[in-house]
Amino acid sequence: MKKLNQRLLICVGLLFSTMVIAQENTEIIFHKPENPARAKAPFSEVVQAGNLFFLAGQIGMDRSVGKLAENGITGETEQTIKNIQGVLQHHGLSLDNVVKCTVILSDINDFKAFNEVYVKYFTKKPARTTYAAAGLAVGAKIEIDVIAVK
Questions:
Q1: What is the phi/psi pair of residue 139, to 5°?
Q2: How many angstroms separate the CA atoms of 16 and 12, rounded?
Q3: Beta carbons of 113 and 142 less than 8 angstroms apart
């Protein structure tokens, strides 16, 4: 029994030290955005830690015209997800790499309409948190941030 406890203790110690070394060696990269105009933002569009990609929140801004997408929550949700796809593609990823979404709605009553669009794109069903908050940037109805794994 004493030898078993010693072996267990050694295994736990090795596992812990491996985890610490892995964390110490994880490079953190603050990626520059594909679009240089977005580089003026006071945050990184994507931060990479090892094989994890943390995307800043995206709203339904149609970047080609500089306005929120039309058709209310449905249009904004679709555009938000397209914006996420664009950022992911720039880093060699797709929506299939997403493991976690955080969704902020300006009105929780939009949940059903948002969800009808969301399920068409996130077919792998990543973990998700959804809540409502007043006052999203530029009057947006939705903001989504994601974590993806390469």
A1: 75, 20
A2: 6
A3: no
Dist. CA 125–CA 60, nearest whole Å: 21
Element of type H or E holding 102: strand 98-105
- For CA atoms 90, 91, 96, 101, the dihedral sign is negative
Q: How many CA atoms lie within 13 A of 68 on its CB side?
A: 18
Q: Going residue by residue through the chain, which has 150 residues, state the pLDDT in tens, using 9 for 90 and above.
A: 455 445 544 544 544 444 444 557 899 999 988 877 777 888 899 999 999 999 999 999 998 899 999 999 999 999 999 999 999 999 999 999 999 999 999 999 999 999 999 999 999 999 999 999 999 999 999 999 999 999
d(CA 29, CA 52): 10
Structure tokens at 148: 């993806």
pTM of the model: 0.82
Q: For residues 54 and 35, what is the distance between their CA atoms, to the nearest angstrom?
A: 18
Query: Which one, of 50, 60, 2, lies nearest residue 29 by Cα?
Result: 50
At CA 55, angle to CA 141 and CA 150, rounded to 5?
135
